[in-house]
Amino acid sequence: KYSPLPSSPSSSRASSSSSSSSSLPATPRRSPRALQRHSSLLSQYSSLLESYTEGEIRQLISALVERYSQAMNSGSHELPLFPRAGSRRKRARARHKPCALKELEVSVSELGLGYESDETVLFRYCSGTCEAAIRSYDLSLKSMRSRRKIKKEKVRARPCCRPLAYDDDVSFLDAYNRYYTVNELSAKECGCV
């Protein structure tokens, strides 16, 4: 137990009533330095909370309760006060997803090939890691690079998730009614290369 803060009126009443009782054992007290640090932290938080309206405090509490219930429903037994920790876990899991084919519906203009068209296409792409596909070549290449045997060449010391085959050609009309065909636009099969 610690001695109550001097700034709290209710705690000063409690300390005066407890000091009159001689049957209670003496409690260890914090050093003045720690007490000052604790007091300034409390005053910072109390001044912060005083700046909120009652509605904002209710909104804050309901958000914390919602996070707590989501954590309990997801099987986690800790209060997710810091959402970045969850996103770090998600990124860590995403790093280990195997190489796979994904798809996205986009307009032709969004492809970045210089065509102006409102037509949409199904763009398939490769995403994921190739940690399981690391071969002796990759390990040896990494070792040679770390020993500076290979200095200036741009070499990749790990396999990369890339298309192994492409879908059929994609044809579309641009905004000026000109007909175009683009080949090797969308992935058909992915693998570690």
UniProtKB/TrEMBL annotation:
Does Signal appear among the keywords?
A: yes
Principal place of residence: secreted
Q: Segment Disordered: which positions?
A: 1-37
How does this protein assemble?
Answer: Homodimer; disulfide-linked. Interacts with GFRA2 coreceptor and RET: forms a 2:2:2 ternary complex composed of NRTN ligand, GFRA2 and RET receptor. Also forms a 4:4:4 tetrameric complex composed of 4 copies of NRTN ligand, GFRA2 and RET receptor, which prevents endocytosis of RET.
Cited SMART domains: TGFB (SM00204)
Protein name per the record = Neurturin
Q: Which family does it belong to?
A: Belongs to the TGF-beta family. GDNF subfamily.
* Keyword Signal found: yes
**What is the primary gene name for this protein?**
Nrtn
Q: What Gene3D superfamilies does the record tag this protein with?
A: Cystine-knot cytokines (2.10.90.10)
Its localization reads:
Secreted
Q: Keywords assigned by UniProt?
A: Disulfide bond, Growth factor, Secreted, Signal
Q: What does this protein do?
A: Growth factor that supports the survival of sympathetic neurons in culture. May regulate the development and maintenance of the CNS. Involved in the development of the neural crest. Might control the size of non-neuronal cell population such as haemopoietic cells. Acts by binding to its coreceptor, GFRA2, leading to autophosphorylation and activation of the RET receptor. Heparan sulfate-binding is required for signaling.
PANTHER family, alphabetically? GDNF SUBFAMILY OF TGF-BETA FAMILY (PTHR12173), NEURTURIN (PTHR12173:SF3)
GO cellular component, as recorded: extracellular region
GO molecular function terms attached to this record: glial cell-derived neurotrophic factor receptor binding; growth factor activity; receptor tyrosine kinase binding
An example Gene Ontology biological process: nervous system development
- Name the residue ranges with Low complexity bias: 1-29
Task: Give the source's domain of life in one word.
Answer: Eukaryota
One Pfam annotation reads TGF_beta
Q: Which residues form the TGF-beta family profile domain?
A: 88-193
Q: Where are the transmembrane segments?
A: none
